[in-house]
Amino acid sequence: MSEEIMNIGSEEGDQVLELDINRLRTFKNHPFKVTADMSMVELKDSIEKYGILNPLIVRPVPEGYYEIISGHRRKFAAKQLGYTKVPVIIKVMKNDEAIVAMVDSNLQREYISPSEKAHAYKMRYDVMKKKGNTNIRGRVVHKTKGKRTVEILAEEFGESTKQIQRYLKLTELIPELLTKLDDDQLSISAAVEIAFLKEEEQKWFLEAMDYAQATPSLSQAQRIKKLSQSNELTEDDLKDILCEIKREDISRVTFKTEQLKKYFPKDYTVEKMKREIIDILKIWMDKYWDL
Fold this sequence. Notes:
The structure is a single chain. By secondary structure, the protein is of the alpha/beta class. The chain is built from 13 helices and 8 strands. The strands form 2 sheets. It has a 6-stranded mixed beta sheet. The N and C termini lie far apart (59 Å).
């Protein structure tokens, strides 16, 4: 099956082809979620008005398919809009090179959840640990001790070495706890401590969170980790520790801007977000308050 050449802009003179959308495959173990949030609505609106301005980057894989390196959200939006073909630039890449390109392109997104960043850093870290691999700038990264690799990764992404280590540790959490982390039901600092627990202990911890309807403070998470490392942690310990949290009357509810901006258009100010939230709550109250 031949691909049609498109006459739209591309970088470095790369040829842009129009490819059947059904021949595109998600990147293996792709760490970034594609969700129907407000930014997706904006992307769909843009594509509907102007088309896909930036071609997807793909690489050939067996059986005539192409794996997406960059453009999973564009592909999702295009399919939602009924597109049967999308513009692509085909790159021949080895697995490690493709991982580097995929991670680096997606980390440029405006909002990335903690679990997405953790798994992305881990994929990048694993590639860099292999002897003789090159990074995105073409420097050879020889196999070294873990800390040295972490330092190189920190330099690449403008993070501290300690922060990179935290994110790498988060990948040891069970999926259900990563979801709580992304939903701000668990802080990153506490989650890192809980990641030291064995898998079974993490499941106990998850049940204890639901039982106590509470989230642990950093000091509580550190106590839990210490009990685990001394092989003294029990399910009852977890429930007792999490139930220590006092359920005080709510006097103020606060949100971080990062928690809210994924639900609003990019040009919304904090004040405009507040007004929209109040309006939504009024509608909810009018509809359900008497039930």
